[in-house]
Write a structure and sequence with these properties.
By secondary structure, this protein is mainly alpha-helical. The chain has three helices and no strands. The chain has helices at about 1-5, 10-35, 45-65. Keywords: Membrane, Transmembrane, Transmembrane helix.
């Protein structure tokens, strides 16, 4: 938020994208190491679940960090 106040809208979005990507990478690596590889054959594939949760982190960061105060 401080980067957005100092640098404006584009700097804020750049920092938001960087921070969201870092959280996405962290979530992806953490879930990949902690979710068991042996899953039920009729359940969702492990890779899709891990990618969905990791991708939702980036979407949540954007939704929670979206501000209309920077112009």
């Amino acid at each position: 938020m401080l980067a957005g106040l100092v640098g404006g809208y584009w700097v804020y979005n750049l920092f938001l994208l960087y921070t969201g990507s870092a959280i996405l990478f962290f979530t992806l690596k953490t879930f990949a190491n902690n979710i068991p590889r042996n899953t039920a054959a009729d359940g969702p594939k492990r890779e899709f679940v891990v990618l969905a949760f990791a991708g939702s982190q980036l979407a949540t960061m954007w939704f929670l960090g979206n501000t209309k105060h920077l112009s």
